[in-house]
Design brief:
The protein is mainly α and about 425 residues long. It has 17 helices and four strands. The protein is about 70% helix and about 5% strand. Strand 1, helix 3 and strand 2 form a beta-alpha-beta unit.
Length: about 425
């Protein structure tokens, strides 16, 4: 125990001298988590609270064009601006001048085509009611399609958001067509105009959709940007101990410390254990610092506060296992690297790659094929899943044992590879 304590004190002194390593392990992740959370929180607000600016150029002179613009306005996700119909060819310039992300050109014959389609649908319905099958077939052949609307979009919009926009615009278009069809059908059957109150009653749906998050603890709190980002970048910070720990292992090999330790009445495995304990404490401190920033600093700078999970013991166990895996990986890289540059270069690149395939930068549920398979070999994936279960789903320790078990197996494999590397290089 005395030898282990002395070795730990030695590693602490070496760590405190590594100013650059400490900066990479603490300052860089703190800046990263603040910046990324700010960006994602702004994105959430753009989608959920702010309205997307859209320019509509109406070249149609009928009622359907105006009704379509009114329907787009009622969707609630667009801030609609109109430009004269004669400027349809300059819609791209208008979008640039008004900083609009979207633009729509309504065709000149939009109203007439909507009316023709509504008339065809009404005639088809009336013929079907009267049992005139031949008339139904004739009307079906005469039914005309409406020319497509032209939707311009800024390339910065992500594909998922573009699909949502397209669905919203299609809903507005469908509402215009349905309204005109109802009016035509009502007039054909009653020979008078459809009352406005009846039209609103038929078109307006009173059915509401309640969206509730599903959680293991039965709560109904919606996770915010901090719940998503703080755990993810805490994992990233833990694995970045490789910049200090990996370099420390390489320096001891290059300086001959390994050889000198073999002449002493101790085992270098004691030195490896001291490094693991020292840097495991560092990873725990990293987690405490970053979580504290999420809890107390984020509300001060206008970001949503981090809400810790109810199972704090489960959070500690997950953090402990994640930190041990990160430390084990750093020592493994240091054992096999021949120079400090190799350890730092390979370590930094490999951490970024593991973060990518582990779901820290791209959600794992969005991955397909080979990328989806590779997530299972990334320790960061299992770390992230355990944290997300605690933070986002309200899970308990027993609910994340599968993730912890997978992470523990990966860590044991890394430890075994490190041992083989030490034996191969005659370092132990």
């Amino acid at each position: 125990m005395f030898k282990l304590w002395i070795s730990i004190k030695k590693d602490i002194r070496i760590l405190l001298r590594d100013k650059v390593g400490i900066s990479l392990m603490f300052v860089m992740p703190i800046i990263l988590v603040i910046v990324v959370t700010s960006i994602q929180n702004s994105t959430f607000q753009l989608v959920n609270k702010n309205k997307l600016p859209i320019i509509i150029c109406n070249t149609d002179t009928g009622k359907a064009g105006a009704q379509f613009i009114e329907s787009v306005n009622k969707i609630g996700m667009f801030n609609v601006s109109q430009i004269p119909g004669e400027k349809a060819t300059t819609i791209a310039d208008a979008m640039h001048d008004k900083d609009a992300l979207l633009g729509i050109v309504i065709p000149t014959n939009f109203s007439s085509q909507v009316n023709n389609k509504a008339k065809a649908a009404s005639d088809k319905a009336m013929a079907a009611f009267s049992g005139q099958t031949d008339s139904v077939k004739a009307v079906t052949k005469q039914a005309a399609n409406i020319d497509p609307l032209t939707l311009y979009y800024n390339p910065v919009l992500q594909e998922s958001l573009r699909f949502s926009i397209q669905g919203a615009i299609r809903s507005a278009l469908q509402l215009v067509q349905t309204r005109e069809t109802l009016r035509t059908l009502y007039y054909a059957s009653n020979e008078k105009e459809l009352p406005k109150s009846l039209e609103n009653e038929m078109l307006n749906s009173n059915t509401t959709i309640n969206m509730l998050p599903v959680s293991k603890d039965g709560t109904r709190t919606t996770p915010n940007a901090s719940q998503h980002n703080v755990p993810a970048w805490t994992i990233f910070a833990m694995f970045f101990v490789i910049m200090s720990l990996g370099g420390s292992v390489v320096r001891e090999k290059v300086s001959g410390s390994f050889i000198r330790l073999k002449t002493l009445p101790t085992n270098y495995l004691v030195g490896l254990l001291s490094k693991q304990m020292t840097y495991l404490a560092v990873t725990l401190i990293q987690a405490v610092v970053i979580f504290s920033i999420g809890i107390w600093l984020f509300p001060v700078i206008g970001l949503p506060a981090l809400n810790l999970p109810a199972d704090l013991f489960g959070l500690f166990v997950v953090t402990l296992v994640c930190g041990w895996c990160a430390v084990s990986y750093a020592i493994c890289v240091g054992v096999f690297a021949n120079t400090q540059e190799q350890a730092n270069g390979f370590g930094a690149i490999s951490i970024v790659i593991l973060a990518c395939i582990g779901g820290l930068m791209v959600p794992s549920f969005a991955m397909q094929g080979m990328a989806k398979t590779l997530t299972n070999i990334s320790p960061m994936h299992w770390c992230l899943q355990a944290y997300y279960s605690l933070f986002l789903e309200g899970a308990k320790l027993k609910d994340v044992l599968n993730n912890i078990g997978s992470l523990f197996i990966i860590t044991i494999i890394i430890q075994f590879i490190t041992y083989l590397g030490l034996k191969r290089k005659n370092l132990i």
